[in-house]
Amino acid sequence: MRALFGLLWMSACVVAPENQVKFGDEVDDTDVDTTPTSEVPDAVDTGEAPAGELYLTLVDAPEQVEVGDARTPIFVRIQGASDLATVTFVATSDVDGAIDPPVYDPVNGGFIWSTAGLSAGWHVLTLQATDADGATGSATWTLGVCEWPEVEPFDTSVVGNGWTRFGDATWDPGGWLEITGNQQSRAGSIYKVDRKINPGDFRMEFDIRTGNGINSGADGYSVNIINVVDEAALAEVVAHASNGGCLGYGTVTGCGNWQPISAFHVEFDTWYNGEAPMFDPTQDNHVAINLDGNPGGHPLWAPVPSLEDFTWRHIIVQIQSNHIVVGIDGARVIDDIIPNFSFDGGYIGVSGSTGWATNNHQFDNLLIHDRCVVPDPATP
Predict the structure, then answer these.
(1) Do 86 and 218 fall into the same domain?
(2) CA spacing 20 to 30 A to 127: which of 92, 181, 263, 375?
(3) Same domain, 278 and 339
(4) Same structural domain for residues 283 and 314?
(5) How many Å apart are CA 282 and CA 270, to the nearest integer?
(6) Helix/strand/coil (H/E/C) assignment for every residue in 205-243
(7) Which residues in the chain come in under a pLDDT of 70?
(8) pTM for this entry
(9) Residue 208 in domain
(10) Which of 143, 172, 196 is the last residue of a domain?
């Protein structure tokens, strides 16, 4: 099986979507900067500590962090110590055992405790402190350390195992999804139905390959995220979508003339349709962002060199609010906003079609970053 293409184009990411690392002009595999960027919050008044006891306060402790993330430190305040600089700690996790203790910050008069070294899972953290006079204190805290879902390599068939196929789409034993096959008048789509993509900021990566066609090759394919209530409603959308230049996702403005839907499409178009309802903006191969089942909208698009050389290409798509970036093999081809756009999430899938002209339309190595999941506790 062929190797996965560079699947992580970010140095790090955090749980909150608004803090996700943005695209860089080039792949950046540098290590995460472990220097905390926030100041220690003001002390919390816990009153006077009895003699021989220390009060430990965890300030603004997060409930969840991403594995390896050093940018979400815990701030620790101590009251009752004779000299903060002499306080020593024993820090443990019920999952990882002994872990690195907090570090004294003399400027702010507190301690900074990094979560960067914790493994994924739910942790009960215990912090025990002792000062030079023997006064002691402790605190415990539960933290979820999340990780991103793994890439779907399609090495084994997913049809009926989290994915549903329609029309001519199929799983190929070579280890990818084939959307149409290299034959005339074909149309297919396949959707991931075991969960929906969350609304809000979103990032996905995948590989595509198209070519081998006759009559100059066509028509293209699209990665679609369709916001419907359930799998039955999704099947109804697919049944009303038109093929040919509508690429198996068009449902409005001549592509089915059906009811409006909520959908997001990343289109790879390899055949020029200059007439209604598609109105392609260029005769070249192009990548486009289309919305709501309308292949003729093209709020964002870019011409690209021919995609039809039957070479695998790595695609990255990122949505941050209404700012959308599309990269192909490390180069940004779309980097712009769609006014008044918001991403609604939904079921993700791929659709495509052929007509008088043909191509293979292949899809592989899907990586979805819409949420960071804390693994369930290990069972004996």
Answers:
(1) no
(2) 375
(3) yes
(4) yes
(5) 10
(6) EEEEEEECCCCCCCCEEEEEEECCCCHHHHHHHHHHCEC
(7) 1-51, 378-380
(8) 0.78
(9) yes
(10) 143
